Amino acid sequence: MPDQVQLLGGQSLFKQEDSLSVTVPSGKYPSYNQFYVDINADGYMDVISTHNYAVILDNFYFYFFQGSADGLQFKEVAGTLFDNTSLSGDYLSSVIFADVDGDNDLDMLVGQSTGNLRYFENANGVYSLNDGHSLSHISHFGITTPTFADIDADGDADVIVGDSGGGLRYFTNHQGVFTQQTGTNNPFTMDVGTNSKPAFADVDADGDLDLLIGNGSIWYYYENINNIWRLQTNENNPFNGFADGTPNFVDVDFDGKMDLVVTTGRKTYYYHNIQRPIIDTTPPEAPLIKIHDTSLATGDTTLVEFHFKEKVLDFTTDDITAENASLSEFRQNTGLGPFVWTAILTPDTGITDSINTLTVGTDWHDVAGNKPSQPSTSANYKVINQEPPKISTTTTDWVFNTPPAGQKYFSIGDTMTLTLTVSEAVQVADTSAYITVANKRFNINKSAFDTSTDKTKLSFDYTVVKGDHLIIGDFIVNNTHLTGVTNAAGVAINNLTTELALLKNSDAFERKSGTENPLKFINGYLASLTPQSTS
């Protein structure tokens, strides 16, 4: 491996150092595709890997290497959230993390040697395999090496999959549903011959993502020039000399600059980004403050995010003033970004006040010791001394419509409607509210609500498309996003905090044929959702 890499334009100098060490126990073989992330949110980078060789073909296992402040050493840790996570019949697997479902924690995607992707959803720190998700339907590309990157710049993580044939497959993320892009909609038509391992980073510091692809013998560098990916060679490729291994751009030491880590199975090469301004006297920018729910009633809580542009020090709750509310669970949350802190905002009881803000003071500073030039203030939030409307968790208050007249099943193009009951009359401001059921988005039908006399009922619609696939166990409300739904006093309705199973495997349903489950899309058709009598 080269001793150092000078990136184009001189913005970054990567120098190989020995300070990063992944301690691999004897007899274990982590894969080439290690993923670096602060999974336990303790402020230090961790490493998650999988087993590399077929000697344990019955299962693949996760290795969790915990980071620390002591010389960037990573050591395998037992008793972690990955200890009981395994899949059968696979090896040479890769693993990546991102917030796929928008609930502010890191979900996990695994690429398998069998050519499949498997999606593990993170629910309160517990990772569960979700084979009903659109990501779990991606398959048949040979050995898969996926990576997340926001290619279409819409604020969420898309998926790019490298395959054993040397190609790349591109899947856009639209509100948690991933769709493959082909033909002219796929900008990644390059072919590196075999076993493509993609990585994205702003290599030339021009504000957009560039692409590196390793294939085990050479690294290919594609510069993003006005959204056209152009292969750079010879002196225009700063990564000439790299051959084996998988590239990873990650801020290992949380200093605000992306380092380069190259993994080659049992050997890890660390290239520290040592380029620094000689003198830094620029005050840090004030953080962006994001309050998830700006209408807080008695008993409510909401997540608050503080987004900084660079690494900061001595930022504590003493720097934050919350009007008519308190903050708890304050921590750095690197799952949302390298310089993000989060806290839970709880309104004070017995108070109604429509004008309240969060203010971040000026006692914190950046790594050069510079303090901000002025405080920062959030958008306004309301505190209301009133209980919010609530969604019924009684499953009989969630009602599906029946198929159209003359049809036994829903077919392609038909509309499924789910109507739910709330605890009091509400009002709907716009069409932004939706519910995710079986990872399918049901959008609120505001027109139906406006014409209905019963304002305790909300209806949500989903249009059946070809290829939809559902089983009884899929009929689970994954989450609710009831933005714009309030009572007459303007108090926002509470969203569900846990999943709700609408239908259970023990329920009896009409059979389509033989023992086949009628709640399964087959060639675009769905059976009646009406449970049959068990008597």
From TrEMBL:
Residue ranges occupied by any Bacterial Ig-like domain in the UniProt entry: 280-383
Keywords on record: Signal
Annotated InterPro entries: Big_12 (IPR044048), FG-GAP (IPR013517), Integrin_alpha_N (IPR028994)
Keyword Transferase set for record: no
Protein origin, superkingdom: Bacteria
Signal peptide: none
Family matches, as Pfam families: Big_12, FG-GAP_3
PANTHER family: PROPROTEIN CONVERTASE P (PTHR44103:SF1)
Protein name: VCBS repeat-containing protein
